[in-house]
Amino acid sequence: MFKSISRLLIGRIATNIADSLFYITILWYFKIIFHSPMILSLVFIADSTIDMCAFIFGPLIDRVYIKNLLKYVTVGQIILSIVASILFHFKNWKTLTLVLLLLTYILSTIGSTLIYPAEEKILPSIVNKNKLTKVNSLFQVTYRILDLFLDALATVIVTYFSFNKAMVISAFVFTIALGFYAKLYLPRNLIVSEKDHDYFTGKYLQYLLKGWYVLKNEGRILLLIIPLAVTNLFYGIASVGMPYFSSQYLTKSAISYGGLELFSSIGGLLGSLIVSKIDTLKPNLEQLIVICLGLAGISVVLEALVANYIPWLILIFALSSAFWISIMNINFEVLIQESFSPRILGRIETINSSIINCMIPIGSFLGGLIVQHFGAGIAILLQGLAEVLTAIFYLIYLR
Q1: Whole-angstrom Cα distance, residue 328 to residue 286?
Q2: Which terminus has fewer CB within 10 Å in the chain: N or C?
Q3: Which tens digit of pLDDT belongs to each residue from 329-368?
Q4: Greatest CA separation found in the chain?
Q5: Domains annotated on the chain, with CATH
Q6: What share of residues in the chain are helix, strand, coil (percent, to 5)?
Q7: How far, in Å, CA of 357 to CA of 228, rounded?
């Protein structure tokens, strides 16, 4: 199965590159052309709303042959990148361009919502259980190494080249991903038989609810993810503020935002490397969340407080925050993969995503208002305080 693991990894790398370029291009186009935090917040609202509704796609991920899903979704993303590159030429029709670009972004993000859980579903079927943590860490380390130059490269492309050229590059990289997904060889237990097709008719809702019932019976996991939904309200606020925060305290160009993302990626990479060198901390997951989330929150608070005095420390605290969150996330992902059958993982992963992200659209909307009236620094500070308070909640209730 080594070939399948490597092909899946390379395909996902290509998808990540194309997704990142697509996202940053749209984000910076809205920021430069419209000069409005409220319009910029539409990108974050769209993104987080799709994450919130991810549970709807769970049965689809579980019931179709996952290789075909990867291929067809990637073809759609290639087409959407080409459409977006064309739309950038309609500079005199700003409102129409805004609506159509937002629509292409929504459709591409739905595609990513289908592709990303596929990895979590495939890995337990092609990797031995005792190697699952190391393989997950390998994937995460690879993504983090990629991120070290990816976000910076994407912002350089957007800064020094046209928006439509950036989208053409995105379409090309999606095509590379398609080539590797087409060569995947997956085990028979991921192939859906003809008799299962009735789940796409009247039983779809029943099949969807089954995923919720299975998750609800795992009370330990459910208790861990619900408070994170509240925390993510403030993550949504901070997401809108971050492009303005970086421009205000670092540099005015898109490179400042890319630099902040670069240091966050370094932190995530270091966290992934730490996890890959030790066994999963599953038995102490509650304590791990308290420590990691608390330290991440303190880092974000300091990020906001030092901005006026020592701006370059913003990068260090962004790195620190991502480091602790990375350690927490990888171990939590392994816990989910080991706790549920691969045949239901599509639903479990998407339901988890929906619960955790359900408050982000509201946060994104509030973020536009907060940044517009109070400044980006407050938006960042609120995120850090929320993470610290959530860690304290875990400390009290998960003893």
Answers
A1: 10
A2: C
A3: 877 777 777 777 666 777 777 787 778 777 877 888 888 8
A4: 65
A5: 2-189+202-397 (1.20.1250.20)
A6: 85, 0, 15
A7: 8
